[in-house]
Amino acid sequence: MKEDSFKELVASIKQGGAILRGEVKARRTFVITGPGVRRFRDDHGLSQTEFASLLGISVRTLQNWEQGRREPEGPAKVLLQVAAKYPDAVWDVVKPSTKGRRGTARQLGKQAKPAKAMTRPSTPPS
Question: What is the span of the domain harbouring residue 87?
């Protein structure tokens, strides 16, 4: 790394530390507004349990968001924004694992196959 680049990097790290300690105000901030969680869930015909499972959160957290007691933060807020703008992309990634036999097979017009039972071998391998 060139010396000038290294000095710039060190200065940036020091500035970031000062911002985190509250000694300096950040020059720019980013405000991310989330979509109406309940409306989004209703638009896609998902129950609270299904939607919470889809996002990997508790039903209680989802209820708090929908009733305005809390706001989605961090990655959940970003995921909701992506889902609102590009729902197919999100559903392609998370829906098969969360809705399983009930959702995806029915949507594709196929019959859901029953899950195979796992069995233990009768004799241990040698």
Answer: 37-95
Average pLDDT over residues 93-102: 55
Report the distance separating Cα 72 and Cα 55, nearest Å: 11
Residues 6+ apart with CB under 8 A from 106: 112
pTM (2 d.p.): 0.48
Residue 5 lies in a domain: no
Looking at residue 90, its pLDDT comes to: 79
Does 56 reside within a domain?
yes
> Of 75, 68, 111, 74, which is closest to residue 90 (Cα–Cα)?
75
In terms of DSSP H, where are the helices of 31-73? 37-43, 48-55, 59-66
Cα–Cα dist 80/14, whole Å:
33
| Tokens read off for 106 | 């029915």
Dihedral pair phi/psi, residue 91, rounded to 5°: -60, -35
Q: Which whole-number Å values give the CA distances from 6 to 12, 26, 37, 90, 115, in the listed order?
A: 10, 22, 44, 39, 56
Residue 34 to residue 62: CA distance in whole angstroms = 13
Report residue 110's pLDDT band, with 50, 70 and 90 as the boundaries.
very low
